[in-house]
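Run log, item B.
One chain of 209 residues. Sequence copied directly from the ordering sheet:
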Amino acid sequence: MGGSFNPIHYGHLLLADEVLEQLRLDRVLFVPAGLPPHKPAAALAPAEDRYTMVKLATADHPRFAVSDLELRRPGPSYTVDTLETLAATGDELFLLVGSETFLDVLSWRAPRRIAELARLVVVPRAGSAFDPEGAAAQKVLRAIGVSRFARADGGGIADGVLIVHATSLALSASDLRRRAREGRSLAYRLPPAVVQYIGSRRLYGSAAT
């Protein structure tokens, strides 16, 4: 599960836990982006701070892990490069993305290679108009060389891009950054250790706690 995690919040964590359970995965590996190619660097907290917040947020979950792979690699953090490295371990890989991200995946580097290296898992956002049979979604399928969408069920995981419906909390990182900047409460939106870290490091223009 990649992302800028700027900052990580309960929406990310709950989604990861539900996908892990539904797909019966061994673990979820969080991979904070060092330099996301699609986001302006000025809006990002330092990569080391974002990595530390993910470590703090996931510390109590026995099947969550965090990788600093994209922080150690220079240049933009391309998902295909990360998957190439992880594939060398021999593990079966699943890549968790939101439905909006899936529809934008053709703007990524080597999208067809991404689909070869990992099973794509699409999680529709609550209230989104994502239509697997629609023209936009079908265009992406054709471009990445996958024949269909599929759903996981109790009997196993079918071939295709997987659609998993998981709880989608109405949280956004941009709103949380604005709250921090305005000195408003972050309680019940982020793990307490992350709230404390944001304050102690004065991230997003927040005051020290």
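Observations after the first pass:
- Residues 6 and 159 are 33 Å apart (CA to CA).
- The longest strand covers residues 28-32.
Flagged for discussion on Thursday.
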